[in-house]
Amino acid sequence: MSTSDGYRGESGGRGKKKRIHLAAHFPGVNSTTVWADPRSGSQIDFSSFEHLARTAERGLFDFFFLAEGLRLREHGGRIHDLDVVGRPESITVLNALAAVTERIGLAGTVNATFNEPYELARRFASLDHLSGGRAAWNVVTSSDAFTGENFRRGGYLDRADRYARAAEFLDTTRELWDSWSPDGAQRPFSHTGRQFAIEGAFTVPRSPQGHPVVIQAGDSAEGREFAASAADVVFSRHSSPEAGRAFHADVKRRLDRYGRQPGDLKIMPAVTYVLGDTDAEAQEKAAEIRRQQVSPQNAILALEQVWGRDLSAYDPDGPLPGIDPDPDSGRVQGRVRVADPFAVAAKWRALSQAKGLSIRQTVIETTGRQSFVGTPRTVAAALEEHVATDAADGFVLVPHLTPGGLDDFVDHVVPLLQERGVFRTGYSGTTLRSHLGLPAPVWKGGTP
Question: Per the database record, which ranges form the Luciferase-like domain (predicted)?
């Protein structure tokens, strides 16, 4: 395999630099996206998806990544403002993007709790065929009864069981994909387990990648073990060097017990960036973006997510509440719950008092920070350092603008990474597995 694409090893061999993997996350209904910027466009129109995907492909990225939202989130009994713009179904969008892109991988988030293996296996195998081997599935789970109300089995899954179901779901899906052999022979499938009991004949022949690439994002002990046993890519949240190296080492250590090599799993944290003509200018731009991301209204919403109370009467430019959180209020629905709101509230109060920060300033300080800030050369050097020191194998870039937020990175940072010899100058393969340097899946179908 050409070194202009991926490779299985961790260092690229003696005398070779470790190559960087890059992916693009579509900026949608999250606190990163700045909707007030006049350059901000629709996150529903297909033209927005097309622009970002084509920009990422022009930048020779490994894949384009879509999130999923199965229910509009609520805050105080009302639809969360960011969700009012809607949340399209990811595989539908990726199928359309397959027709207007040629090489970039197409990754979609699909929930293993509220789907069934047979249907999902068909959808991803079809996408893999339509795209010529570029499909990827980001496996997520849910124990949220609020989301489950949209489904027939709403709320039935205990939180402790979600990884057990996801693991069997993925195993069953791979059994379906393996019911067609590499030479085109088909055989009936039969699976009986705690979560699923299905049998029949799978309708889609073996796809170009054999198995679409599997992405996983859990950070718990169960999530890390699941990633080591079954995932090809980990979408991690550890973007600082120290946290990244600790996570990278922990997950890679777990691979051996499953007969896997370090290069068989790529760890790619979600990161943001801000560029400027000078480092000082970039820092000023980053501070302004943080202020845009955390408007006065968003500051109160972020505060209510921790406190679980109606805090609309508080002044965003005033001090933090003196009252304790109410973690059982149910004021925020469909958003990630704060694990220990009392500890978070205490930390925020201490920070606010130490630095004399208002509510809005405290939220900006604790939630609105960019990962890489500086000139293109500064950012390129920092990205290389992260990968060279095993803080990551690559990055999933989350721009703050839809859909043009990736343009300046592709135009100004990618050429510098290429000059440094740490990023491809062209796609040498046609599948996402080849871009990532992942081994072909071993066919486990037996004799048809």
Answer: 36-387
